[in-house]
Protein backbone atom coordinates (compact mmCIF):
# COMPACT_ATOMS: atom_id res chain seq x y z
CA UNK A 1 0.00 0.00 0.00
CA UNK A 2 0.92 3.63 -0.32
CA UNK A 3 1.59 4.15 3.36
CA UNK A 4 4.06 1.27 3.54
CA UNK A 5 5.90 2.52 0.49
CA UNK A 6 6.06 5.96 1.94
CA UNK A 7 7.41 4.56 5.19
CA UNK A 8 10.06 2.58 3.35
CA UNK A 9 11.07 5.63 1.44
CA UNK A 10 11.41 7.69 4.60
CA UNK A 11 13.47 4.98 6.23
CA UNK A 12 15.67 4.72 3.19
CA UNK A 13 16.25 8.45 2.96
CA UNK A 14 17.02 8.70 6.68
CA UNK A 15 19.68 6.05 6.23
CA UNK A 16 21.07 7.82 3.18
CA UNK A 17 21.13 11.00 5.15
CA UNK A 18 23.08 9.37 7.95
CA UNK A 19 25.61 8.05 5.46
CA UNK A 20 25.98 11.43 3.80
CA UNK A 21 26.44 13.09 7.18
CA UNK A 22 29.11 10.63 8.22
CA UNK A 23 30.90 11.17 4.93
CA UNK A 24 30.82 14.93 5.33
CA UNK A 25 32.09 14.65 8.89
CA UNK A 26 34.94 12.37 7.84
CA UNK A 27 35.79 14.72 4.98
CA UNK A 28 35.95 17.79 7.21
CA UNK A 29 37.78 16.10 10.06
CA UNK A 30 40.27 14.61 7.59
CA UNK A 31 41.14 18.08 6.32
CA UNK A 32 41.81 19.21 9.90
CA UNK A 33 43.48 15.92 10.75
CA UNK A 34 46.06 16.36 8.01
CA UNK A 35 46.92 19.82 9.33
CA UNK A 36 46.96 18.72 12.96
CA UNK A 37 49.15 15.72 12.17
CA UNK A 38 46.67 13.17 13.46
CA UNK A 39 47.73 10.66 10.81
CA UNK A 40 50.52 8.16 11.38
CA UNK A 41 52.08 5.35 9.40
CA UNK A 42 52.40 1.76 10.63
CA UNK A 43 54.67 -0.92 9.17
CA UNK A 44 53.97 -4.58 8.55
CA UNK A 45 56.79 -7.02 7.68
CA UNK A 46 56.86 -9.21 4.58
CA UNK A 47 58.56 -12.40 5.70
CA UNK A 48 60.68 -14.42 3.29
CA UNK A 49 60.47 -18.09 4.33
CA UNK A 50 63.29 -19.22 2.02
CA UNK A 51 65.83 -17.02 3.80
CA UNK A 52 64.04 -16.57 7.14
CA UNK A 53 64.45 -12.81 6.68
CA UNK A 54 62.43 -9.62 6.52
CA UNK A 55 63.78 -7.27 3.89
CA UNK A 56 60.53 -5.52 2.98
CA UNK A 57 57.57 -3.97 4.76
CA UNK A 58 54.27 -2.31 3.85
CA UNK A 59 53.39 1.20 5.01
CA UNK A 60 49.77 1.48 6.19
CA UNK A 61 48.04 4.71 7.19
CA UNK A 62 46.41 5.09 10.59
CA UNK A 63 44.13 7.91 11.68
CA UNK A 64 42.90 8.68 15.16
CA UNK A 65 40.59 11.70 15.31
CA UNK A 66 39.55 13.30 18.64
CA UNK A 67 35.92 13.48 17.51
CA UNK A 68 35.57 10.27 15.47
CA UNK A 69 38.07 8.02 17.23
CA UNK A 70 40.08 5.65 15.04
CA UNK A 71 38.79 5.67 11.45
CA UNK A 72 39.51 2.68 9.21
CA UNK A 73 41.73 3.40 6.19
CA UNK A 74 39.21 1.72 3.88
CA UNK A 75 36.73 4.41 4.87
CA UNK A 76 38.87 7.55 4.87
CA UNK A 77 40.84 6.61 1.74
CA UNK A 78 37.59 6.40 -0.20
CA UNK A 79 36.45 9.76 1.19
CA UNK A 80 39.84 11.27 0.37
CA UNK A 81 39.61 10.01 -3.20
CA UNK A 82 36.19 11.59 -3.65
CA UNK A 83 36.94 14.87 -1.89
CA UNK A 84 40.24 15.54 -3.66
CA UNK A 85 42.34 15.00 -0.53
CA UNK A 86 44.04 11.84 -1.76
CA UNK A 87 46.96 13.73 -3.23
CA UNK A 88 47.82 15.39 0.09
CA UNK A 89 47.30 12.11 1.91
CA UNK A 90 49.45 10.26 -0.63
CA UNK A 91 52.25 12.81 -0.31
CA UNK A 92 52.10 12.53 3.45
CA UNK A 93 52.40 8.74 3.58
CA UNK A 94 55.11 8.68 0.91
CA UNK A 95 57.31 11.22 2.67
CA UNK A 96 56.76 9.74 6.10
CA UNK A 97 57.50 6.21 4.92
CA UNK A 98 60.69 7.25 3.15
CA UNK A 99 61.89 9.30 6.12
CA UNK A 100 61.14 6.46 8.56
CA UNK A 101 62.78 3.75 6.49
CA UNK A 102 65.87 5.87 5.71
CA UNK A 103 66.25 6.32 9.44
CA UNK A 104 65.73 2.62 10.11
CA UNK A 105 68.32 1.71 7.47
CA UNK A 106 71.01 3.76 9.22
CA UNK A 107 71.18 0.99 11.82
CA UNK A 108 70.88 -1.98 9.48
CA UNK A 109 73.32 -4.11 7.50
CA UNK A 110 70.75 -5.24 4.95
CA UNK A 111 68.60 -2.35 3.75
CA UNK A 112 64.82 -2.49 4.25
CA UNK A 113 62.49 -1.89 1.30
CA UNK A 114 59.16 -0.16 1.88
CA UNK A 115 55.92 -0.62 -0.07
CA UNK A 116 53.51 2.32 -0.26
CA UNK A 117 49.91 1.99 -1.47
CA UNK A 118 49.01 4.27 -4.36
CA UNK A 119 45.35 4.80 -5.17
CA UNK A 120 44.01 4.63 -8.70
CA UNK A 121 43.25 8.37 -8.68
CA UNK A 122 46.83 9.18 -7.72
CA UNK A 123 48.31 6.99 -10.41
CA UNK A 124 46.08 8.24 -13.19
CA UNK A 125 45.39 11.87 -12.28
CA UNK A 126 48.31 13.28 -10.31
CA UNK A 127 51.93 13.88 -11.38
CA UNK A 128 52.93 10.72 -9.54
CA UNK A 129 56.23 10.14 -11.36
CA UNK A 130 57.49 13.61 -10.41
CA UNK A 131 56.19 13.18 -6.86
CA UNK A 132 58.03 9.89 -6.40
CA UNK A 133 61.19 11.34 -7.90
CA UNK A 134 61.01 14.38 -5.65
CA UNK A 135 60.28 12.38 -2.50
CA UNK A 136 63.24 10.11 -3.23
CA UNK A 137 65.57 13.05 -3.86
CA UNK A 138 64.85 14.38 -0.35
CA UNK A 139 66.13 11.13 1.16
CA UNK A 140 69.35 9.23 0.77
CA UNK A 141 67.32 6.17 -0.16
CA UNK A 142 67.97 4.13 -3.27
CA UNK A 143 64.93 4.06 -5.58
CA UNK A 144 64.92 0.25 -5.54
CA UNK A 145 64.08 0.40 -1.82
CA UNK A 146 60.71 1.90 -2.70
CA UNK A 147 57.86 -0.22 -4.01
CA UNK A 148 54.40 0.98 -4.91
CA UNK A 149 51.29 -1.18 -4.57
CA UNK A 150 48.48 -0.60 -7.03
CA UNK A 151 45.12 -2.34 -7.38
CA UNK A 152 43.32 -3.65 -10.38
CA UNK A 153 40.85 -0.77 -10.33
CA UNK A 154 43.61 1.26 -11.96
CA UNK A 155 43.87 -1.20 -14.83
CA UNK A 156 40.15 -1.28 -15.36
CA UNK A 157 39.87 2.52 -15.35
CA UNK A 158 42.52 3.06 -18.00
CA UNK A 159 44.86 0.21 -18.80
CA UNK A 160 46.97 1.99 -21.42
CA UNK A 161 47.66 5.04 -19.25
CA UNK A 162 48.37 2.85 -16.23
CA UNK A 163 50.92 0.83 -18.18
CA UNK A 164 52.58 3.99 -19.48
CA UNK A 165 52.85 5.55 -16.00
CA UNK A 166 54.09 2.28 -14.46
CA UNK A 167 56.82 2.06 -17.10
CA UNK A 168 58.01 5.55 -16.12
CA UNK A 169 57.92 4.62 -12.45
CA UNK A 170 60.02 1.53 -13.09
CA UNK A 171 62.46 3.64 -15.07
CA UNK A 172 63.12 5.54 -11.84
CA UNK A 173 64.13 2.20 -10.34
CA UNK A 174 61.02 1.96 -8.15
CA UNK A 175 59.38 -1.48 -7.89
CA UNK A 176 55.72 -2.20 -8.60
CA UNK A 177 53.35 -4.72 -6.99
CA UNK A 178 49.80 -5.60 -8.04
CA UNK A 179 47.69 -5.69 -4.87
CA UNK A 180 44.51 -7.63 -4.03
CA UNK A 181 45.12 -10.04 -6.88
CA UNK A 182 42.15 -12.23 -7.63
CA UNK A 183 39.42 -9.95 -6.33
CA UNK A 184 38.78 -7.85 -9.41
CA UNK A 185 38.89 -8.74 -13.05
CA UNK A 186 42.43 -10.07 -13.06
CA UNK A 187 43.16 -11.95 -16.18
CA UNK A 188 46.26 -13.55 -17.58
CA UNK A 189 46.24 -11.03 -20.40
CA UNK A 190 46.40 -8.15 -17.93
CA UNK A 191 49.15 -9.64 -15.87
CA UNK A 192 51.49 -10.60 -18.69
CA UNK A 193 51.35 -7.06 -20.09
CA UNK A 194 51.66 -5.27 -16.77
CA UNK A 195 55.02 -3.74 -15.84
CA UNK A 196 55.27 -5.14 -12.31
CA UNK A 197 57.60 -7.50 -10.52
CA UNK A 198 55.25 -8.73 -7.85
CA UNK A 199 51.68 -9.79 -7.21
CA UNK A 200 49.90 -9.96 -3.86
CA UNK A 201 47.28 -12.66 -3.42
CA UNK A 202 44.28 -11.19 -1.65
CA UNK A 203 43.75 -12.24 1.94
CA UNK A 204 40.30 -13.57 1.16
CA UNK A 205 41.76 -16.47 -0.85
CA UNK A 206 44.52 -17.05 1.65
CA UNK A 207 42.10 -17.23 4.54
CA UNK A 208 39.73 -19.56 2.73
CA UNK A 209 42.38 -21.91 1.41
CA UNK A 210 42.30 -24.18 4.44
CA UNK A 211 38.51 -24.29 4.36
CA UNK A 212 37.75 -24.72 0.67
CA UNK A 213 39.73 -27.06 -1.52
CA UNK A 214 38.96 -24.85 -4.55
CA UNK A 215 40.59 -21.86 -2.92
CA UNK A 216 43.67 -23.89 -2.10
CA UNK A 217 43.94 -24.97 -5.74
CA UNK A 218 43.42 -21.38 -6.82
CA UNK A 219 46.19 -20.08 -4.56
CA UNK A 220 48.54 -22.79 -5.79
CA UNK A 221 47.68 -21.95 -9.40
CA UNK A 222 48.18 -18.20 -8.89
CA UNK A 223 51.62 -18.86 -7.44
CA UNK A 224 52.55 -21.20 -10.32
CA UNK A 225 51.23 -18.71 -12.89
CA UNK A 226 53.09 -15.79 -11.31
CA UNK A 227 56.31 -17.82 -11.37
CA UNK A 228 55.78 -18.71 -15.01
CA UNK A 229 55.48 -14.98 -15.72
CA UNK A 230 58.58 -14.24 -13.63
CA UNK A 231 56.74 -12.35 -10.92
CA UNK A 232 57.36 -12.64 -7.19
CA UNK A 233 54.36 -13.61 -5.07
CA UNK A 234 53.19 -12.29 -1.72
CA UNK A 235 50.40 -13.90 0.30
CA UNK A 236 48.60 -11.47 2.60
CA UNK A 237 46.34 -12.21 5.56
CA UNK A 238 48.46 -15.12 6.82
CA UNK A 239 47.23 -15.78 10.34
CA UNK A 240 48.36 -19.35 11.13
CA UNK A 241 51.41 -21.59 10.91
CA UNK A 242 49.40 -24.00 8.78
CA UNK A 243 48.89 -21.28 6.17
CA UNK A 244 52.53 -20.34 6.26
CA UNK A 245 53.70 -23.92 5.78
CA UNK A 246 51.35 -24.61 2.91
CA UNK A 247 52.19 -21.35 1.12
CA UNK A 248 55.90 -22.00 1.53
CA UNK A 249 55.43 -25.46 0.04
CA UNK A 250 53.62 -23.88 -2.93
CA UNK A 251 56.64 -21.63 -3.49
CA UNK A 252 55.24 -18.34 -2.23
CA UNK A 253 58.07 -15.78 -1.92
CA UNK A 254 56.72 -13.56 0.85
CA UNK A 255 54.34 -14.06 3.75
CA UNK A 256 52.45 -11.10 5.23
CA UNK A 257 49.96 -11.31 8.07
CA UNK A 258 49.18 -11.33 11.77
CA UNK A 259 51.00 -14.66 12.19
CA UNK A 260 54.26 -12.82 11.52
CA UNK A 261 53.25 -9.40 12.86
CA UNK A 262 50.36 -6.93 12.63
CA UNK A 263 51.13 -3.46 11.28
CA UNK A 264 52.96 -1.57 14.08
CA UNK A 265 54.57 1.86 14.66
CA UNK A 266 58.17 2.33 13.50
CA UNK A 267 59.80 1.79 16.90
CA UNK A 268 57.91 -1.47 17.44
CA UNK A 269 58.82 -2.58 13.92
CA UNK A 270 62.47 -1.87 14.66
CA UNK A 271 62.25 -3.94 17.87
CA UNK A 272 60.58 -6.76 15.93
CA UNK A 273 63.55 -6.82 13.53
CA UNK A 274 66.03 -6.86 16.43
CA UNK A 275 64.18 -9.77 18.04
CA UNK A 276 64.21 -11.69 14.75
CA UNK A 277 67.93 -11.15 14.35
CA UNK A 278 68.69 -12.42 17.84
CA UNK A 279 66.31 -15.38 17.73
P1 LIG B 1 45.61 -3.44 1.63
O1 LIG B 1 46.58 -2.61 0.88
O2 LIG B 1 45.12 -4.69 0.98
O3 LIG B 1 46.30 -3.75 3.02
C1 LIG B 1 46.21 -4.97 3.72
C2 LIG B 1 45.21 -4.87 4.85
O4 LIG B 1 45.15 -6.14 5.51
C3 LIG B 1 45.59 -3.87 5.92
O5 LIG B 1 44.38 -3.30 6.42
C4 LIG B 1 46.26 -4.76 6.98
O6 LIG B 1 46.24 -4.19 8.28
C5 LIG B 1 45.37 -5.97 6.90
N1 LIG B 1 46.03 -7.19 7.37
C6 LIG B 1 47.35 -7.47 7.42
N2 LIG B 1 47.56 -8.72 7.88
C7 LIG B 1 46.35 -9.25 8.14
C8 LIG B 1 45.91 -10.52 8.64
O7 LIG B 1 46.68 -11.43 8.94
N3 LIG B 1 44.57 -10.69 8.76
C9 LIG B 1 43.67 -9.72 8.43
N4 LIG B 1 42.37 -9.96 8.57
N5 LIG B 1 44.05 -8.51 7.95
C10 LIG B 1 45.37 -8.28 7.80
P2 LIG B 1 44.28 -1.75 6.76
O8 LIG B 1 45.57 -1.27 7.35
O9 LIG B 1 43.03 -1.58 7.55
O10 LIG B 1 44.12 -1.07 5.35
C11 LIG B 1 43.00 -1.32 4.56
C12 LIG B 1 43.19 -0.79 3.16
O11 LIG B 1 43.27 0.64 3.16
C13 LIG B 1 44.47 -1.26 2.50
O12 LIG B 1 44.30 -2.57 2.00
C14 LIG B 1 44.64 -0.21 1.42
O13 LIG B 1 43.83 -0.51 0.31
C15 LIG B 1 44.11 1.04 2.11
N6 LIG B 1 45.24 1.82 2.62
C16 LIG B 1 45.91 1.76 3.80
N7 LIG B 1 46.92 2.65 3.84
C17 LIG B 1 46.90 3.30 2.65
C18 LIG B 1 47.71 4.37 2.07
O14 LIG B 1 48.68 4.87 2.65
N8 LIG B 1 47.34 4.77 0.81
C19 LIG B 1 46.30 4.20 0.11
N9 LIG B 1 46.02 4.67 -1.13
N10 LIG B 1 45.56 3.21 0.61
C20 LIG B 1 45.85 2.77 1.87
CA1 LIG C 1 48.53 -3.00 -0.05
CA1 LIG D 1 45.99 -6.20 -0.37
CA1 LIG E 1 42.51 -4.63 0.25
Query: Compounds present?
Result: ligand C2E, calcium ion
Give the overall silhouette: globular
Give the biggest beta sheet: 9 strands, mixed
Give the N-to-C terminal Cα separation.
70 Å
Number of helices: 11
Helix proportion of residues, in percent? Answer: 40-55%
Question: Which runs of at least 5 residues are low in confidence (pLDDT < 50)?
Answer: none
Global mean pLDDT? 92
Q: Which structural class best describes the helix and strand composition?
A: alpha/beta
Strand content: 15-25%
Rg on CA atoms, Å: 20 Å
Total strands: the figure is 9
Q: How do the SSEs run, as a string of H and E?
A: HEEEHHEHHEHEHEHHEHEH
Please describe what this structure looks like.
- The protein starts with a helix and ends with a helix.
- It is globular, with a radius of gyration of 20 Å.
- With 279 residues, the chain is α/β, with parallel strands linked by helices.
- The chain has helices at 2-35, 73-83, 86-105, 120-125, 128-137, 152-171, 188-193, 203-208, 213-228, 241-250, 266-278; strands spanning 39-48, 53-65, 69-71, 113-117, 146-150, 175-181, 198-201, 232-235, 254-255.
- Helix 1 (2-35) crosses helix 2.
Amino acid sequence: SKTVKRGEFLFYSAEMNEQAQRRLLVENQLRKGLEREELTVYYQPLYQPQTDQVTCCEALLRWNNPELGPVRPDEFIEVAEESGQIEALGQFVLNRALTDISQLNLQRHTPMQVAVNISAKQLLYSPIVEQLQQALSHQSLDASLLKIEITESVLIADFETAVMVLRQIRQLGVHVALDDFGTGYSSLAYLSRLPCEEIKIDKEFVQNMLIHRDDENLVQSIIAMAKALNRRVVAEGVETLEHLEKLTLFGCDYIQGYYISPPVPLDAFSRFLDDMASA
